[in-house]
């Protein structure tokens, strides 16, 4: 367990037996973000993605009084300008009844610590533009919005079509 400054709050890295809990947190986050219809992850997919031969991400679970209350899913990306890896936080979720206790801040500070320990050049994430509570929270931490960048994504049929352009 990773001890924290919050009384009775500890964290640990997820293990294969935690996959059902990770999926539960993903679904709770999707519901909060009104994106439940986009969740196609299954326990099998997560088990392979998180613990298979080619691990795509890592998960930290947060426990308050031994009960799971939060999670952070992250992975390494790379900055060509810095010439170093970074940590990209895909999801951070704290159960609604546990918010306002500093849990999110502790989890983010641990990820910053981990980024420094791993010689990463930065820690970054996205936030939905309507989530003013999260935006204000992140700005209080010193996070800066990257307003000059636009995120692009290719999925579903567009991804298949683009891939088929390469097929010989």
From TrEMBL:
<keyword id="KW-0012">Acyltransferase</keyword>
<feature type="domain" description="N-acetyltransferase">
    <location>
        <begin position="9"/>
        <end position="161"/>
    </location>
</feature>
<keyword id="KW-0808">Transferase</keyword>
<dbReference type="InterPro" id="IPR051016">
    <property type="entry name" value="Diverse_Substrate_AcTransf"/>
</dbReference>
<dbReference type="Pfam" id="PF00583">
    <property type="entry name" value="Acetyltransf_1"/>
</dbReference>
<comment type="similarity">
    <text>Belongs to the acetyltransferase family.</text>
</comment>
<dbReference type="InterPro" id="IPR016181">
    <property type="entry name" value="Acyl_CoA_acyltransferase"/>
</dbReference>
<protein>
    <submittedName>
        <fullName>N-acetyltransferase</fullName>
    </submittedName>
</protein>
<dbReference type="InterPro" id="IPR000182">
    <property type="entry name" value="GNAT_dom"/>
</dbReference>
<dbReference type="GO" id="GO:0008080">
    <property type="term" value="F:N-acetyltransferase activity"/>
</dbReference>
């Amino acid at each position: 367990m990773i001890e924290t400054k919050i009384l009775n709050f500890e964290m640990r890295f997820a293990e294969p037996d935690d996959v059902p809990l990770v999926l539960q947190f993903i679904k709770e986050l999707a519901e909060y973000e009104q994106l439940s219809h986009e969740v196609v992850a299954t326990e099998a997919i997560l088990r392979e993605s998180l613990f298979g031969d080619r691990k795509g991400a890592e998960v930290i679970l947060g426990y308050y009084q031994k009960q799971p209350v939060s999670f952070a899913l992250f992975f390494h990306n790379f900055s060509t300008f810095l010439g170093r890896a970074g940590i990209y936080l895909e999801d951070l979720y704290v159960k609604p009844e546990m918010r306002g206790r500093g849990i999110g801040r502790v989890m983010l500070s641990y990820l910053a610590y981990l980024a420094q320990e791993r010689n990463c050049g930065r820690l970054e994430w996205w936030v939905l533009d309507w989530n003013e509570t999260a935006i204000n929270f992140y700005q209080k931490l010193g996070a800066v919005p990257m307003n000059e960048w636009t995120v692009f994504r290719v999925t579903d049929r567009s991804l298949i079509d683009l891939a088929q352009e390469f097929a010989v």
